Amino acid sequence: MSPQPQHPAPSDPYELFQWNMIRAHENFQIGLDRILQLVQSPPTDDISHFCGYLQAWGAAIHAHHETEEAFVFPFLSTKMNMKEEEGEHKAIHERLDRFLKYVAECKKDPKTFDGSRTTKMVEELRDVLLPHLNAEVEHIAPSNLREAGFSEQEMNELLITWLPIAIVEGLSKEARKHGDPFLVVPFMISHTPPEHRAFPEGGWFLKKVLVPFIFARRDKGYWKYSPYSMS
């Protein structure tokens, strides 16, 4: 199969903000679908690595939401009501934290892993996560941002602050407060479809050197379960 052409990011700051949010949310849904597929026939001889992959999915969601709460929600809340999204984060993380606690226990003792229980917990997460991801993207539509009164300069300032962290979770000093880069960075890259890997300047070094030889190396046993290669 020939490679899919890359889709360049829009230049309009209102559209770019929503475009990047869609890309991040797409990664989480791809991961969720992948987990539900794999858990139907879990790798019983490799549960520790499989649980590490599950942890990476949860860590990526945590990091994304923490950067939203640190940068995006305070900005948007100056002119929009973000209370619903904030409440949805709490509901999601109550279930996500229970799931991650269970996964950590299974990683430590693979005999405690239960495919049916894992499926149920992921499906319960799906029921609160996906509606939130879809509604949030609709809420930040370019027309809504313009109607709320955000200027292009304000949107560009948000993108300058948030985008380096949101797209490449963990590479900056600030981003490391919001997640383990050795989990989050490889997860995000290996769950980004090739046609959406239109990374900014410096992306070649990120894809060809930093991710495969530094960030993905520590937990390389996890990424066999990812749907896409790192390069």
Automatic annotation (TrEMBL):
Cleavable signal peptide: none
Every Hemerythrin-like domain range: 21-142
InterPro entries named among the record's database cross-references: Dimeric_xanthone_biosynth (IPR053206), Hemerythrin-like (IPR012312)
Name of protein: Hemerythrin-like domain-containing protein
Protein source organism: Marasmius crinis-equi
